Amino acid sequence: MPPASRLIAHLDMDAFYASVELLRRPELRGRAVVVGGSRARAARFEDGHWPRLGDYAGRGVVTTATYEARARGIHSGMGLMKAAALAPDAVLLPADFDEYRRLSRAFKEAVAELAPAIEDRGIDEIYIDLSAEARAHEPLGHDPLGGARALAQDIRNNVRAATGLSCSIGLAPNKLLAKIGSDLEKPGGLTVLTAADVPQRIWPLPVRRINGIGPKAGARLDALGVQTIGDLAACAPDWLVEHFGRTQGLWMHRSAHGLDDRPVVTHSDPVSMSRETTFERDLHPRHDREQLGALFTRLCEQVAADLQRKGWVGRTIGIKLRFDDFRTVTRDLTIELPTADAALIRRAGGLCLKRVSLNRRLRLLGVRVGTLSRADAQPPRPRPKRPLPVPSPAPADAPLTQTLPLFPDES
DNA sequence: TCTGGGGTCCTAGGACCC
DNA sequence: TCTGGGGTCCTAGGACCC
User: What EC number(s) does this enzyme carry (predicted)?
Assistant: First the structure.
């Protein structure tokens, strides 16, 4: 039985964090504003000036920028220092995630009043399955896309009324095209795409506009002479499979032709929870041992608190380290019974840490708990015991630190 | 003065069991 | 002595997304 045709919307809030900031600081409208650097001191209007991006010194990246700042070449993910070189006079505001989460809940509730089949895709975007709503128009002989367009308008108006914020919506037969569509007429766009529009409107776009083709795949395709989605659509599936493997190659081919049958998933359980922090300055595993140990303990307490607050426990405890050369390593350890206990997580994390040779300064430390189950569920049958992994021997050229106790232990 | 923090999913090898 | 598979779990790394 062929699946009935669907109507999917992708809704994306316009420059979300920056727009939230403008909501409470309307005098900044029209100016280049950058949100980022959560450690930046609270932004205040002082001595006739807002904090200047050009005065910032430190690590941190741009989280969002207003369209005025984007016009200067600033985009999210860019280092704040690089952004400061492009627009030193831009206003820099620290991120206020509590406020963003509050407005995120508000816009999603406003959508749910009109269309409840929502897939959460993070703080500022969602997919909505409008198939049922669209079908309700058909028996009346309405043009289904006309009805859908009107419904999308209603959704946008409801979001605006509830939050004061604007969003862009893509309407299409699947998630892939809806997502591309919501980005085509930003900000404030409402874009309808059908399968018939693919050659005209999708094929001229760069391959990177396909959600799932990132920097690496994009560069590899480019090196193979494939720049646009149309180029990709013209590639033989076998040739793509040869270069990218069966799964990814076939997926690329289908995507380039606008095909995607992923459902809108309205509920999902978390897989892991983590906390990590990049230090203000790189820390030395030996000289800064105490500070590292204290930070490590704090991260474990934060993950534990997150788990407890949300009612989850986990069996796989992992750590993540990033060295000053940006090399990243992870280690994890699966324990018998799931936990949300900070001291237990700390101890397991300490064992993981012993399997890393610490021969460079560190810039980041993280703690993760995975293989989650509900805290109120029957405790799962303990897994058969495995021998504890033997810490891998330090390489011959490892420095002395390897043989010393690493971080202060509570034992 | 490069490069955040919180996630998901995939791959691949080895252990271990049947 | 050598030769098999399949399935699941665990671990490490990497790509990607918001």
Answer: 2.7.7.7
